[in-house]
Specification:
By secondary structure, this protein is of the alpha/beta class. The protein has a single domain (3-134), classed as Cytidine Deaminase, domain 2. The mean pLDDT is 96. It has a five-stranded mixed β-sheet with strand order 2-1-3-4-5. The protein is 43% helix and 20% strand. The chain has helices spanning 3-19, 43-46, 53-65, 83-92, 109-112, 130-144, and strands at 26-31, 34-40, 74-79, 96-101, 123-126.
Length: 146
């Protein structure tokens, strides 16, 4: 299994969010080739502005491991993390973050510029799935803002 496979799993979570009327972002946490956390945006469902896909996937992974650190894990997320999620990822000490698409409106870069807010040992990279992720987001907002 590779980045493409795992990003497809994150995109599945994003499609679930889309189907639930949520901004279509999905995330998974992988450790030793096993998915240990999943999340899709649930801001509307939970009436909670912190219920982002990354936050929910991290919580699931922490609960699975019984640990607050994910140094050997990888987060796959369909859209570049926002500043709030970047803070949670910093504290998790996650080893690697792979995102499908940049988010020029709401990503951590909007507040930090190009300053890296993640743990110094965290590797950040853009991976596969950009076109599908952007199309989901575009379609979602087109349907709500004609």
């Amino acid at each position: 299994m590779d980045d493409k496979y795992y990003m497809q799993q994150a995109l599945r979570e994003a499609r679930n969010a889309f189907d639930d009327g949520e901004v279509p972002v999905g995330a998974i946490v992988v450790l030793n080739d096993k998915i240990i956390g999943r999340g899709s945006n649930q801001v509307e469902k939970l009436n909670d502005c912190t219920a982002h896909a990354e936050m929910l996937a991290l919580t699931a992974a922490f609960n699975y491991l019984g640990s607050k650190y994910l140094m050997e894990a990888t987060l796959y997320v369909t859209l570049e993390p926002c500043l709030m999620c970047a803070g949670a990822l910093y504290w998790s000490k996650i080893g690697r973050i792979v995102y499908a698409a940049r988010d020029d409106k709401h990503s951590y870069r909007k507040s930090t510029g190009e300053t890296n807010p993640f743990h110094p040992k965290t590797k950040l990279e853009q991976g596969p799935g950009e076109a599908e992720s952007l199309q989901l987001v575009k379609t979602f907002f087109e349907q709500r803002r004609p």
